[in-house]
């Protein structure tokens, strides 16, 4: 029995899965979470109404900016284990491990165990994949869902059963309800592969794909249709939409805006920085001063009063080249070299040279045999997954670095398959194709040296030289040992492991030192908010956020002051003004909302710390047209809300008519009654609680 069991266990796969478990779960309970989604999960546990709509607040005022499926899973985890950072991170970390296993399951039938093992290892070591699975951003669950859909698609071709095809597209539809159109990025590969690989007549294949598309659309639009059919006054406002519509959210903010970099017609550049175009013009007024109403008035940078991370350009570098999301969040400027730039290469691109040589090997293998095998079709599937994504991320105006994790499975699959093909050419010693494997390892090592050079402020020059030298040594020994197949085989395996060391290290820094739980970035130079941080002015330990820009708040269920290891949460995670909270609790008399604030970034810490509902009047960033003065007046008169906390700094995107109504109809509460001294004496930090005023509605 023991021998039989041993034969069924792939111990190398087990080792890879244990590595993935370590990378995904090590000190996960201390990692912190994206407060925006954690607060939503907390709210979703209060009622079925808030659960179904993925409401940001327990009163059901506004939803988060994503569909609910992944958040439903996080809410279930929080229900079973109690609300904590760990409980909301658990589904994502587990999905990451499952994805690594799925790569093995998908690759093995076509290219064998060795290719499957290498593909799993590559995905497990992909830096941005490691970074994102340690957050409660929903990408990890999306990737797992799409890989299950891929497995089902392969079954459809193998078994020639339409039910597997329908299941595959059903799962992509589920993916749409995890992160909307991002799930559709894999569809070119799904359609193309089934059409070229299925053995039925082409007319039958077309009919089957049409049926699968119907299933895809029905599942994709199921939740959106239900929500949009509900009267708007009977459900929460759809967060980050401009028309209170899920369909508009999918096509607009979570759709075309990702490509264009801005929401045309409403002035929003991207979430968190609305109306950036207008304010960029104010930044560029010739004297470097801040726009009117911003917390630093007309002070010039560089005098100790302007936020140090704005640098000497008065904040213009926030906009990137041309503004409107170009280069924002550390994604570089659009162009053919974007994926090879400092901003993105270290996240996902380490093995792209090897992928290129793998493609060359596939072309050569076809030209030699003139036979279009299932292996070729399988490789085309992964190329059709990867290439459209490379094009999109090269030209897109607005995305975060962690979106690149979508490329991880395709790169992993192509590297695993490519190594098998290149090794076959190498051992046969038939002309120039036998040089492809040594050349692929050398080119990959040189490219990794380039990535190290791009990050030379954080990486020793010794490592750059060492990486290049190792690549040369591997190339030389592979060329001179070609007649000693066994030794060359182990050398080629060592070469593949060698080119994985740096991607592994890049991801490991996030595991060991913490990262950003809101906008995750991998590597020793990872920053809290992309280029918004000035590295020279705000130095930090590897993997840490530079000081002086964002403030790390208390994680869910974590003792105050215990901050030795935390995912830096960016703008969402801020300390709650205890004096203000005590004041509000003292004057709370059962209103539906304890407080109304501009945005979710201000509301989240209050709701995370208490069980009260806080109204985010403008949604995530303050730019959503949720309220009108008339509607707000009606709510105030009905006793639903009494206190309003208004920020007069960085007020981009806010509806000034709402502020005017509050100023006109409410009485300002003296700051001495609610403002803590520590919140007003730190002018050099770019805090959201500066220039805030508290108002009370007296009726």
TrEMBL record:
Keyword list, A-Z: Cell membrane, Glycosyltransferase, Membrane, Transferase, Transmembrane, Transmembrane helix
GO cellular component, one term: plasma membrane
Cited InterPro entries: LipidA_mod_glycosyltrf_83, RgtA/B/C-like, YkcA/B-like_C
All residue ranges annotated as the Glycosyltransferase RgtA/B/C/D-like domain in the record: 65-223
BP GO annotations: lipopolysaccharide biosynthetic process; response to iron(III) ion
Region ranges (Disordered): 279-302
The UniProt record lists the keyword ATP-binding: no
Protein name per Swiss-Prot or TrEMBL: Uncharacterized protein
Record organism: Bacillus smithii 7_3_47FAA
């Amino acid at each position: 029995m023991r021998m039989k069991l041993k034969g069924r266990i792939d111990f190398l796969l087990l080792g890879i899965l244990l590595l993935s478990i370590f990378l995904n779960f090590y000190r996960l309970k201390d990692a912190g979470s994206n407060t925006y989604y954690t607060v939503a999960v907390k709210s979703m546990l209060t009622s079925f109404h808030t659960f179904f709509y993925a409401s940001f607040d327990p009163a059901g005022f506004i939803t988060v900016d994503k569909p609910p499926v992944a958040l439903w899973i996080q809410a279930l985890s929080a229900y079973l284990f109690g609300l904590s950072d760990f409980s909301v991170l658990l589904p994502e970390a587990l999905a990451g491990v499952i994805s690594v296993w799925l790569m093995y399951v998908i690759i093995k039938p076509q290219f064998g165990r060795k290719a499957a093992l290498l593909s799993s290892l590559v995905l497990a070591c992909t830096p941005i994949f490691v970074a994102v699975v340690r957050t409660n951003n929903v990408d990890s669950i999306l990737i797992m869902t799409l890989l299950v859909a891929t497995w089902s698609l392969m079954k459809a071709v193998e078994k020639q059963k339409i039910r597997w095809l329908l299941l595959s597209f059903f799962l992509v539809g589920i993916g749409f309800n995890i992160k909307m159109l991002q799930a559709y990025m894999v569809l070119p590969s799904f359609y193309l592969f089934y059409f070229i690989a299925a053995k039925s007549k082409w007319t039958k294949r077309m009919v089957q794909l049409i049926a699968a598309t119907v299933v895809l659309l029905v599942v994709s639009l199921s939740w959106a249709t239900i929500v949009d059919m509900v009267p708007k006054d009977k459900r929460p406002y759809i967060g980050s939409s401009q028309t209170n519509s899920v369909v508009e959210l999918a096509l607009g903010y979570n759709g075309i805006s990702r490509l264009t970099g801005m929401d045309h017609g409403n002035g929003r550049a991207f979430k968190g920085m609305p109306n950036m175009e207008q304010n960029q013009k104010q930044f560029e007024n010739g004297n470097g001063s801040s726009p009117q109403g911003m917390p630093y008035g007309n002070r010039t940078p560089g005098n100790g009063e302007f936020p140090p991370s704005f640098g000497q350009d008065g904040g213009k570098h926030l906009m990137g080249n041309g503004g409107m999301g170009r280069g924002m969040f550390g994604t570089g400027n659009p162009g053919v070299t974007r994926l090879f730039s400092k901003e993105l290469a270290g996240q996902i691109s380490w093995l792209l040279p090897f992928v290129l040589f793998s493609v060359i090997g596939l072309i050569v293998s076809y030209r030699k045999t003139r036979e279009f095998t299932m292996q070729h079709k399988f490789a085309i599937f992964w190329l059709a997954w990867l290439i459209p994504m490379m094009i999109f991320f090269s030209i897109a105006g607005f995305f975060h670095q962690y979106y690149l994790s979508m490329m991880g499975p395709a790169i992993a699959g192509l590297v695993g398959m490519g190594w098998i093909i290149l090794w076959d050419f190498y051992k046969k010693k038939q002309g120039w194709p036998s040089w492809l494997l040594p050349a692929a390892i050398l080119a990959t090592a040189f490219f990794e040296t380039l990535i190290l050079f791009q990050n030379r402020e954080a990486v020793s020059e010794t490592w750059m030289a060492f990486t290049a030298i190792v690549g040369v040594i591997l190339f030389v020994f592979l060329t001179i040992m070609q007649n000693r197949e066994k030794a060359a085989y182990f050398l080629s395996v060592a070469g593949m492991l060698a080119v994985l060391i740096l991607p592994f290290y890049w991801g490991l820094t996030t595991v060991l030192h913490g990262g950003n739980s809101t906008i995750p970035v991998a590597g020793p130079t990872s920053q809290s908010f992309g280029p918004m941080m000035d590295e020279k002015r705000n130095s930090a330990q590897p993997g840490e956020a530079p000081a002086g820009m964002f403030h790390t708040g208390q994680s869910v269920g974590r003792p105050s002051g215990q901050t030795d290891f935390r995912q830096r949460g960016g703008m969402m995670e801020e300390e709650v003004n205890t004096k203000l909270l005590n004041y509000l609790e003292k004057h709370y008399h059962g209103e539906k909302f304890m407080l109304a604030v501009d945005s979710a970034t201000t509301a989240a810490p209050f709701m995370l710390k208490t069980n009260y509902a806080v109204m985010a009047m403008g949604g995530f960033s303050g730019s959503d047209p949720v309220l009108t003065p008339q509607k707000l007046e009606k709510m105030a008169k009905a006793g639903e809300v009494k206190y309003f906390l208004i920020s007069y700094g960085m007020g981009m995107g806010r509806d000034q008519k709402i502020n005017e109504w509050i100023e006109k109809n409410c009485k300002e509460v003296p700051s001495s009654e609610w403002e803590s001294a520590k919140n007003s004496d730190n002018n050099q930090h770019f805090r959201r609680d500066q220039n805030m005023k508290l108002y009370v509605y007296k009726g």
